[in-house]
Amino acid sequence: MSKAFSVLVTGGAGYIGSHSVLALLDAGWDVVVLDNLVTGFSWAIDDRASFVEGSVEDMALTARIIADHNIGAILHFAGSVVVPESVTDPLKYYRNNTAASRALIESAVVGGVRHFIFSSTAATYGEPEAIPVQESAPTVPINPYGRSKLMTEQMLQDISAAHPMNHAALRYFNVAGADPEGRSGQSTDGATHLIKVAVEAATGKRDHVAIFGTDFDTADGTGVRDYIHVSDLAAAHVAALDKLVEDPARSYILNCGYGRGFSVSEVLDAVDRITNAPIERRIEGRRAGDPAALVADNSAILDTLRWTPQRDDIDLIVADAMAWERKLAEKRT
Ligand code: UD1
After folding, report:
1. Which residues constitute the domain of residue 79?
2. Do residues 191 and 200 lie in contact, with contact meaning Cβ atoms separated by under 8 Å?
3. Which stretches of 63-105 are assigned E, i.e. beta strand?
4. Between vectors from CA 85 to CA 80 and to CA 91, what angle results, nearest 5°?
5. Which H or E run contains 327?
6. For residue 313, what are the contacts with CB-CB under 8 A and spacing of at least 6?
7. Is 144 inside a domain boundary?
C-alpha cells in the first residue's frame, strides 16, 4: 500500500542515516536523501531512494525538496558527532547541529511538514546522577556537542507547541554494529568509537586498542556503556514515525538503548570471542570528559513505540561490526 507522503532523510549517506533509509524503504516509505557527502558516502544510499546532494542550511533547496516530493516527515540525522572536536571547534557544532537544524525546521514549518524526528544523544545528560538514566533526568551536557544537540531539542519543543508539527527527539546511547545483510556499516576513517576501533585492530588496521581508564567506579574499573545495534536504532526511527503519524498532537523524547551496560573489558572480550584471536590491549589514562557509566532506562521507548529489539546481544553487535570491517578491508586491498 502506498503511503500518504514521502520522507526526507538528512544525513542519509551517513552511518545511522543510511541504515534508517534501509529500514524506511523496507517498510514501504518513499525516501528522499539530502546529504552534503562531507562525512557520508553516496554508495551508502540505497538505489530505491532519491538523492539530492546539498546542505540542510540551504533553505531554498529544502523548501524545493519539501514541495516537489510531497514531504510529510523529516528524519534529521545530518550533523557533526565528534565530541573532542566540539571542544576545540564549538562554532562548527553550533552551526552544523544547531543553526542548520533551525534553518531546516523553518523550511519544514513553512512547507507544512507535519512530523520531525531528530537525532539527539545521551550526551545531553552530561554525567547523570543516577544509572539507568531516565528521560526526565537533568540535562546538563558537559561539552559543546551535547549542548548543540540539546538546543535543537529545545527549539523543537517550542515549535511543536506553536505549529502543527509534532516531533520525536531520540537520544541515542552508544550506536554500533552494521546492517546484518551487509548493505551498510560504519565507514568513516579515523574512528574513535570503541567497537569500531576494536574491529579495526582485529582486521590489522591498528596494532592495539587503548583502554581509557581502569579506575572507574564500575565492576571491573573500565567504562560502562549501553551499546545499541544500528539496525535496531533504525527500526526505532520507523516506529517513531508511525507513532507521530498516529497521534499528531503528541511529541516525544525517548532514550534509545537496551538498558544494559557493558564495560570496555567486556566489549573487548566479545571481540576476542568473535575473532578467536586476542587483540592487544594497552591500558592508558582516562580520556577527558568520559563518565564512568552511561546506561539508558529504556522503559519509555518500549512502552511508547511498537519496537522490539532484534539484536540485543553484544556478540551479535560485534559480529556484524566485524563482518562490515572485513568488507572494508577487502575494498582497501
Ligand atoms: C561519545 C558521546 C556520545 C556520542 C558519541 C558519538 C559522551 C559521554 N558520549 O560516546 O554522546 O553520541 O560519542 O560520537 O560524550 N574507549 C576506550 N578505548 C577506545 C575508545 C573508547 O577505552 O579506544 C572507552 C571510552 O572511554 C568509553 C567507552 O570505551 O568508556 C565508549 O567510548 P566511545 O565508543 O568513544 O563512545 P562514548 O565516548 O561513550
Report:
1. 6-176+227-256
2. yes
3. 71-76
4. 70
5. helix 314-332
6. none
7. yes
The answer, yes or no, to whether the previous bond of 278 is cis (omega within 30 of 0) is no
Both 244 and 266 in one domain: the answer is no
Q: Give residue-wise pLDDT tens across range 86-111.
A: 999 999 999 999 999 999 999 999 99
- pTM of the predicted model over 0.90: yes
The answer to whether residues 132 and 216 belong to one domain is no
- Three-state DSSP at 29 gives coil
Cell of 221: 574499573
12 CA from centroid of ligand 1 (Å): 23
The answer, yes or no, to whether any atom of ligand 1 lies below 6 A from the CB of 123, is yes
Q: Given phi > 0 = left and psi -120 to 50 = alpha, else beta, which region is 139?
A: beta
Residue pair 57/98 in contact by the 8 Å Cβ criterion? no
Q: List the grid coordinates of 289.
A: 570528559
Residue whose grid cell is 511538514? 113
Q: Is residue 308 part of a domain?
A: yes
Ligand 1 pocket check for 321: Cβ under 6 Å: no
Select which of 145, 172, 227, 252 is catalytic: 145
User: Does 293 lie in the same domain as 236?
Assistant: no
Does residue 186 fall inside a structural domain? no
At 262-275, the pLDDT tens digits run 999 999 999 999 99
Is 125 annotated as catalytic? no
